[in-house]
Target: N-acetyltransferase
Amino acid sequence: MDIERDPDGQRYVASDDGREVGELTFAQEAGTLRLLHTKVDEAAEGRGIGGGLARRALDDARRDGLRVDPQCQFVAGWIERHPEYAELVAED
Model:
C-alpha cells in the first residue's frame, strides 16, 4: 500500500496496485492541519488503511511543525489509541 499527499486535492490518498482504496481529507490554515474525513473502500477495510492515512498525516504535521484538529471521528479515536501523537492536537 502506498500513501501520498495530494496537496491540490487537500487529501491523502492510499493506493494498492495503482487503485485508490482510501483517502483522508484535510484543510490547512494558520499553522493547523484540520483532518476532516477518512474514507476506505469497503472491500479494503480491515487492512490498516485508515490507520496508515492517519499516521502519514500526523507524521507530516509533526515534521512541518503544525498542530492538528482531528475533526474526523476515526482520526480522533486513532490518536487516543496512539498517545505518542496527542501532543500534536491543538488546544480548544
About this structure: The longest strand covers residues 19-29.
